[in-house]
Structures are given as C-alpha cells and as structure tokens.
Design a protein that fits this description.
203 residues, alpha/beta, Glutaredoxin, 2 domains, 9 helices
C-alpha cells in the first residue's frame, strides 16, 4: 500500500501533467486535492496552471503566449500584427545560462536597430510563470512588457514542436511578409546576425 505522502505526490503529478498537456481535468478531483494537501507550493502550481488553462481557451487552437499582466494572446495573431517588420525571435528560459549570457549582446542589437523595422521578440520556455517574472526584473534593460512573453506549454507547444525546439538558446528570423526564413539563426553575439537582419531589412 502506498504511503500517504507518496500517494499525494503521484496524484499531484497526474493532475499537473493533465493541465500542462492541455488534457481535460476533473474539477472535483482538483478541488479535492487542493483542499486536502498541506503543500502550499503544490496548491500554487495547480491553481496557476488551471488559471492559465482557462485563459488559453479564449484563443482556441492557437499558440498561447502570456505577458507579465497575465493577458493571453495567440502568437500567430501577434505576428500578424507586426507584418512589415523583420522579427528576431529569442527562445530562452531563466534557468538557461547560455541564454542569459547572450542578453548583453541582444541589448546592443536592440540599440543598433532602434527606430527601424525590426522587432525583437523574447519567448520564454520557463515552466513556471514566477521564474519568468523574476527574470524579467533581472533583465529589465533587455526585456520589456512589449517584447517579452511566456510561451505556454513551453517545449510541448505547437510552436516548439513545429520548429523542433529541443534545446535553447534558439533563434528564429521572420521576414516582413511573416515567413520564418531562418529556424536556427545566429546568436545575438555573432557578427553574422547583423548581416542577416540587414539583408531582410533591405528587401
């Protein structure tokens, strides 16, 4: 017979997996678990995941991204709004040291193309919103509420699956017509990235 603590952990894992994989969960089971457990971190995780799952319903089958004010947007709709600009997509996470190491160079790139038709879009693959939010504060010179979003479902999202994103940092380039022209673009610190952006800016 399973010990109570182990049984609780297994039930938590089952519920968390259902939510993170966008599977339907039984509200009664979720409510019962939250009422019974004494682990506040488990409760907080499930409540946040459940809240985001509800918000995701508003965009149907789209790729959900969320800003720091917890507004959920469809990534494809966001990209559509910025047609006419070259978009440099930075896939990163708060726990990824190589990602963070590129942030100073990314800030320099932003300054280089300031006022031009280039958008720098930062999509975090953090599993927990709190970790991402803290990273926003630490990287406030690079990340802003206008260019930084949490990619819901992270590596399991349709976007990450489509472009075979299994490791980060990873960078993509989207041209003015909205076409992804580079699925593994140079890093911000590499000289080639400037040449690449300049090429698509001129088209």
């Amino acid at each position: 017979m399973l010990k109570p603590a182990l049984a609780e952990l297994m039930q938590f894992s089952l519920l968390a997996n259902k939510v993170s994989q966008k599977q339907s969960t039984h509200a009664e089971l979720m409510a019962e678990f939250i009422a019974r457990t004494q682990d506040k971190s488990m409760v907080a995780f499930l409540q946040e995941a459940q809240r985001l799952q509800e918000a995701r319903k508003n965009i149907g089958d789209g790729v959900a991204i969320i800003d720091n004010k917890e507004v959920v947007t469809d990534l494809n709709s966001f990209l559509q709004l910025h047609r006419g600009k070259v978009i440099y997509v930075d896939l990163w996470a708060s726990w990824c040291r190589p990602c963070l190491a590129e942030m100073p160079a990314s800030q320099q790139l932003q300054q280089r193309y300031k006022g031009r038709d280039v958008l720098f879009l930062y999509l975090s693959l953090d599993e927990h919103k709190e970790s991402w939010s803290k990273a926003l504060v630490r990287q406030k010179d690079v990340l802003s509420n206008d260019n930084s979003y949490l990619l819901l479902d992270n590596f399991h999202s349709d976007f990450a699956t489509k472009y075979d994103v299994k490791t980060i940092p990873r960078y993509l380039l989207i041209d003015k017509a909205g076409t992804v022209v580079e699925t593994d673009a140079p890093r911000p610190g590499e000289e080639e990235v400037k040449e690449l952006i300049d090429t698509y800016l001129a088209k």
